[in-house]
Description:
By secondary structure, the protein is mainly α. It has one domain (about 1-300): Na+/H+ antiporter like fold, CATH 1.20.1530.20. The protein has helices spanning about 1-30, 30-55, 60-85, 90-100, 110-120, 125-150, 165-175, 185-210, 220-240, 245-255, 265-270, 275-300.
Amino acid sequence: MQLISIFVNVVAPVFAVVLIGYLAGPWLGLEVRTLSRVSYYIFMPAFVFHVISQAEVQAAVVGQMTIYITTVYVALALLGFAVAKGLKRPPEVVGMYVLIATFSNSGNFGLSMVKFRFGEQALAPATVYFIILTVIGFAFGVAAASWARGGALGAITSVFKTPGLLAFVPAAVFSATGFEVPLFFSRVTGLLADAMIPVMLVTLGVQLADVGKIRVNLDVVMASAVRLLGGPILAAILVVPFGLGGLGRSTGILQASMPAAVLTVIIALEYDLVPGLVTTTVLFSTLISLITLTVVLTFL
C-alpha cells in the first residue's frame, strides 16, 4: 500500500510535469536553450540563495555531508570503470560509464522528489547535496571524457563559476551569521526560486523529446544499473560509518538514486564521447527510474 502511495503522490507528479514538457515542447516549438539558460542563470541561483540563506545547517554537518557524498561518488566512478573494463569496452565507452555513474539528476528530479517526500524542511540539505553533486558531476564527467579522448582538464574549473555555486557563498554567510536577508531581496529570490523546479522539469521533458527513438543494448542497461542501483546501495552502505541521520541521511541516499543528468549529453557532445549511447542511456535511465525511485523511497 505504501509503495502505491509513494508512486502516486511522490514519483508520478514529477514524471507528469516532465511528460507535459515532452508533449508541449514539439507542439509549442519550445526551445531547450532558452528554457535551460533561464533556469541556469536566474532560477537556480535564486533558489540556492533563498533556501540556504534561511536554512539552519551547521558548517560541521555540511563538511560531513560533503565528504560522505564525495566518497559515494568516487566509489560509483570506480564501479562504473570496473564494470566497463570487465566488459572489455574501449576507452570512450569506459568514459561513458564513469560519466553516467557520476552525473545524476539531483536538480530537477532530486529536489522535487525530496520536497514531495520529506517536505520543505528537507530542501536545505538536498540543495547542499545538489551543489556538491554538480561540482562532482562536472569534475568526474569532464575528467572521464578528457581521459577517453586525450583532451585537457581545464574545463573542470569552469564549474566553480556556475551561478548556483556562486550564490551559495553569500547565502551560507547569512545562514551562518543569522543575519536576516532584506525583505525586498528575500521576496524577489523567493518568487524566482518557486519557478525553478517546475521550469527545470518542463525543460527536461523538452530535452527528452529531442532524443527520438532509443536503441537499448547491453551498455545502456549496465550503465543505467550502475547509476540507478549502485547509487542507492553505495549511499546506504557508506552513510553508516559517517554517522549521518535524519534528513542528511535520507536526502543523501535519495539524491544518489537519481537517473543520469541530461547535462551528460552536453559533455558527451563536446568531447565526442559516444553521444548517441550517452543520450540513449539518459533517456532509458530516466524511464526506468520510475520504478527504482519508487522502491528506494519506500525504504526512506
